[in-house]
Amino acid sequence: xxxxxxxxxxxxANNRKTMLEEIPVYELPFPEKEKLAFKIYRVNGRKIRxxxxxxxxxxxxxxNYFELCIxxxxxxxxxIDFMNYIIETPGIHxxxxxxxxxxxxxxxxxxxxxxxxxEFYHLHFKGLEIIPGYPLVTQLxxxxxxxxxxxxxxxxxILISSVEKEFEQALPESEEIIISFLNIFFLRLRSRFMAxxxxxxxxxxxxxxxxxxxxxxxxxHYKEIHQIGExxxxxxxxxxxxxxxxxxxxGKTPGELIVERLILEARRLLLYSDLNNKxxxxxxxxxxxxxxxxxxxxxTGFTPTEFRSRxxxxxxx
Length: 317
Prior knowledge:
The protein is α+β, with helices and mostly antiparallel strands and 317 residues long. It has helices spanning 7-13, 118-124, 150-169, 174-200, 208-221, 228-235, 239-250, 254-272, 277-283, 289-300, 304-312; strands at 4-6, 25-26, 38-44, 47-48, 61-63, 66-73, 76-80, 83-86, 91-95, 100-105, 110-116, 145-147.
């Protein structure tokens, strides 16, 4: 079972002190001459092998692209949006665009990074969800993370080696071959997550699709839409039906999920931007900053100011 704990416990254990300013948002350079907006990087020890990797990954950061972190050997810890996961191998961690993360790799760490743009994914894998029902799958006990036995990982390992070989050869037909291998890879990944979903929710829930669509809407509109009734209207359902479906499947009300998403964004902004509390409240469409502060304290145990001070102390030099 993967280890997961509050991120501030991890920061306390981290004795490397660095001043953190604003969270960097990384974009992978896909030159116009490169039609394939996909890259694979091998990682050995604490560094990415490819010198062409353009980013500093020693501080928390986020991407505007998808990233599959594939861990094949060694140990480490992976922070994803204020949660700390113990890395177990072999395993695969999936990051969607916008998530803040940081990987602490041990000396014996080995693995790969698959990185690809949103456009690449939607162009070549239309209709294929890498993780079925994402972001609903974040309600799983391990989130969007797969840990496997070496035997279970064998099929993935073969596909990774095949993709790496084609990527390095860069033959005229390599692009089409890589896309074909990735399609199989994503299908196998999807199958694994389907198994996890069924294991934690043994009975297929009749409201699953409605809850999935609700989660997608929240992810896209949480800043401007806070009311359950507006989401229900967009979904063509009554608030009562939506509330019953979400509560029965997730154990939480739609309102709680909306607030959770808002608080996550507020925590990101407090730690990784210089916006003050009032500016953050307005950015998240709270007209009353004091009300926002009360909600934040209720959900986190700290006022926004206390949270920012507490977390940034761990990075100050």
